[in-house]
Please model this.
Amino acid sequence: MKIYDRSGFPNPIRIRVVVAQKGLESEIEWIPVDLIGAEHKHPAFLAKNPSGVVPVLELEDGTCISESTAITEYLDNLDGNPVLTGRTPLEMATIHMMQHRAEAYVIDPVGNYFHYGTPGWGDVLPAYKAPEWKGRTEWAGREAAKAQEGLRYFNKVLRTRPYVAGDNFTMPDITLFAGIYFAEATQLMVRGLRALDEWHRRVSELPAVKHRTGQELLPEDLARIK
Model:
């Protein structure tokens, strides 16, 4: 199997944790995609994923699966032991509910702020994003506030349970972890959220999270972002 991604970006981080959690490292060939250079917006990549985003999982028969949730579902169920996406109807429903919230409340608005509220997208990618418009800065600010409110929401959730969807580490924990990574990189992290901070400390020490490959932004990406 091949996975097209880029080191250090939030959605690729999600799948790298999944791969580590499922013990699939030896079965994956990692194909780097130049996100800041907009390689994912070119025809060769769009043939694999018309949405023009990473990561993308390519199977041996050429089938391509995009969207982090779908890739997680596939990899988690390969061995018939879905530890990340749920086994019972209630587990699956709860995990997918919280997964959607982790995306909608944190990782997506952080990404929007990054693209439209900071110069962090380099010199090439803006041509593939929305152009300047009146009120763009204000909108980006609202997305930043939305992300910070999302962090406060998960702080409340984690006061009542050890992990986002209950007693076990599952898919929404991975998504929230990646969202926090990006929130810290964009200086949106809210300090003093004790339950969230404690959860983050524990999750950071889990083997699949601690020892995942490609956990940092590459030097060439950092140089262009800055």
Notes: The CA atoms of residues 112 and 176 lie 16 Å apart.
